[in-house]
Amino acid sequence: MAVSSLPGAPDKDLVNQIKRLEELFTIDTATLKKITHHFVDELTRGLSVEGGSIPMNPTWVMSEPTGHETGEYLALDFGGTNLRVCQVTLKERNFDIIQSKWRIREELKTGVAEELWDFLADCLHQFIETHHGPITNNTMDKIPLGFTFSYPATQNYIDEGTLQWWTKGFDIAGVEGHNVVPMFEAALRQRGVPVKLIALVNDTTGTLIASAYANLHMKIGCIFGTGCNAAYIEDCGSIPKLAHLNLPSNTPMVINCEWGAFNHRTLPRTPYDTSIDKASPRPGQQAFEKMVAGLYLGEIFRLIMVDLHSNPETHVFAGQDMSKLQNPYSLDSSFLAAIEEDPTDNLSNTLELFQTQLNISPNLPELQLIRRTAELIGTRAARLSACGVAAISIKKGYASCHVGADGSVFQKYPHFKARGAQALREILDWPAKQDPGEEDPIEILPAEDGSGVGAALIAALTLRRVQEGNMHGILHPERFS
Ligand code: BGC
Description:
The protein has helices at about 10-25, 30-45, 105-110, 115-130, 180-190, 205-215, 270-280, 290, 295-310, 335-340, 350-360, 365-395, 410, 415-430, 450-465; strands spanning about 55-60, 70-80, 80-90, 95-105, 145-150, 155, 160-165, 195-200, 220-225, 230-235, 250-255, 400-405, 440-445. It is α/β, with parallel strands linked by helices. The protein has a domain at about 65-215 and about 450-460 and about 475-480: Nucleotidyltransferase, domain 5 (2-Layer Sandwich), CATH 3.30.420.
C-alpha cells in the first residue's frame, strides 16, 4: 500500500517511518535459515546435561495413544488467560466433553500463591457439584485428573512438576523452584474435592497426544496463543540428561521444548522488543516468546504507536488524546487481528476501532501506517514461529509430517497459517507447488483440544502404564490404586 499516493498524504516522513519499520521487522529467507540452524543446536543443547537456552523438559509421557483409550477423566486447564475444567469421556478415537470456563483475574496473576491454588480447587469443586451433585465426605470415588499446567516445569515424575519460572506475565511469589502438585493438592484436600491427580501436563504435550489420537501423522504439538511452545517425541537414547536412568534407548519420551525461551544473537530484536523485555516481570527470559506470542503482539504495536507519536518528525496522532494508548498491555492480539481483517479501502473499520477503543481518530495516511505496522508484526510472528517447527523437523529428520497447532493466534490471527507455511517453504527449500491444492510436506493443522482431551488421554495412558507395571516416572504409585 503506497502511502505517498494517497490523497492528502502529508509528507515523506510517514513513508520513511514505514520503511524503517519494514527494515526492523522483515525477516528474509537467509535470516530465517540462520535462526533455524541455531534453533536446532539449542534443541540439542537443551537435551544435554549442560543445557542451553531452551529447557527441553522430559514429560514422562512415554507412549502415544492407541485410539482404544476409554473412560471418564477430568482435565484442569490452567493456561494464560482462562481456567477451564473439562469432563472428558474417551470412546475409542472419539470423545464427549463437558466444560466450564473462568477468566483468570489480573490480580490473581501477580497475587499470592494460596489464592491461586484456592481458585483452582474452588473451580473444580464447583464443576463437580454442578455435574455430579453435592460433594459429601468420602462417599464419592475419586475421579482421575490430568492437570494442564502451561508453564515450564521440571518433571522427574509425571505426577509432580517444579515450576522453573513464570511466563505470560504471571508473577506469583513462592511458586518458582517448588513442586506445584503438593500445593495444589493441599487446596483440594481442604475442600474435600474428590479427584486424584494422575498427570501434570503441558498444553503442548496435551496437544501432541490429542492430535495423535485422531491423526497418526501428527508428530509435533504446538501452541501459538498467549504464549508459544511445542512438544515432540524423542528417543530416550537421544536425551543425554536422562542417561543416568538407563532407560532403553528406543523408549519414546515426549519432550516439552519450552521454545519460548529460545534466545540467540541471530534473533533480530528491535528496540520495541527490548522495551517489552525490560518492563516485564522476568527481563532476559522468554526472548523468542516475547517476539511471537499473542500476549506481546498488541504491546509491540502499542509501543510503536507511542514512539511514532512522540517523534517530532512524524506528527503521528498530533493533537489527539493519547491517554488510553499510554496504558501498557491495553491492546491484545485481537486488536491487531481486527486491523488486519479490515476489508475497507479507506480502513474505516480501523478508524472506528481506534475511535471506540482509544479515543483517537487517525487520518488516512496514519491508518495506512497502522495497517502496515500490524502486518509487519503479524508476519514476523508467523515467520519466526515457522523456524521452531522447521528446527524440530530437521532435528528429527521429518521430511513430511503433520503438526497439530492450537492457541488464539493460530486460530484467529488472519494469515498466520499462510505466512507460517510460506516461511517453512523458504526455510526447507521446498519446490513451488505444482497445483494449489497440493499439501505441503509439513502441514501445520488445527489440533484437537490438547489441554482438555489431551490431558485426559495422558491420564489414561499413565493409568495403563501403571497397570502394566511400568513405573518409570511415577512418584506416587499409591495415587493410582
Ligand atoms: C509456557 C509454556 C506453554 C506456552 C503456551 C509458555 O509461556 O512457558 O509452558 O506451553 O506458553 O501456552
